[in-house]
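Here's a chain:
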Amino acid sequence: MTSNPPPAKPLPLGLLRRALNQLAIVLAITAVFSLIQLLVFRQPWGIVLLFTFCISAACSTMIQLLSCGSTYWLNQRRPKTEPPLEWPGWPLMSLSLVLGTFLGAAIGNELGNLISGLRNPSLHSGDLRNLLSILLISLLPGMVVTFYFVNRSHIASANAQLLTAQRLAAENKLRLLESQLEPHMLFNTLANLRVLIGLDPSRAQAMLDQLIAFLRATLNASRSGSHPLREEFARLNDYLGLMQIRMGARLRPVLDLPAELAELSIAPLLLQPLVENAIKHGLEPAIEGGELRVTARRVGRHLQLTVSDSGVGLSQAGSAEAQAGSGFGLHQVRERLATQYGPAATLNIAPAAGSGTLVTVEIPIETP
């Protein structure tokens, strides 16, 4: 019984990209130096191309081997707690350039002789002046290429550090906004609970139990950067259950979440301030109360979330802030949208069809 050999592992993408970069550099150097030699020394183009390519490829290979070996040697001597080096630094890199160029030029020259059948003199057989001239000419492209890649690496590292700092700042800002929002909701609920204690102690007791359950359920959600949309609707259902104890049949909530959108990612407690505003400024001032509807829809590559109520509407809202859409809750939602999604997210307030208010939020779809 024979077993099939394991499939060969593909080359890492970074290694393949680096090899292609080196090949492109070698071909560019070959083209430039071959053109110079053809114009100045009038040598046969086939021989010029062959020897220039062999020497360029050998120099590039030797420089890479020496610089990578130096970097590995330095990393082996560093403490494990420090991040690994990506290059050996200019002193060792300069030594790698000189040695790699000398060895590469010698190896490339012999490789060209082997392929062409010629007997081009080796480097060590010529005079010192000719040797130094060849080394300086060979060193020039290596120094230019090394300087370019080192600068590009430093710029990429600086950009990565900047992006990390911006991400951490955005996350800290989100935490601050959430920490401001949670006490605001809690204080409003406790104020309502205080009124209800004097009017109906049994309902106040039920409301307190519901509040404890709601806070326990939202504790973990408010400490994470995102959660599935189904969790957001579950927390809304808990909050609306809390409000129904106080408003009774005057509050008629409807939550509409299609199953295919349930696992989409969203910032925690993003909709709760909008629902709270709809109750406070739309449904509570209406004697008969009304319907509060929260829906989720996919519109192209965006998730559209709407919070609508059939209450008194913007024109009759008792708060100027509510009419302008600049109250605390709406301000927090706008800030969180701008911090987490940037200009790709929008929030719009408009009169609802018939009566009431419609708030629409659109954010880019984030898959789980």
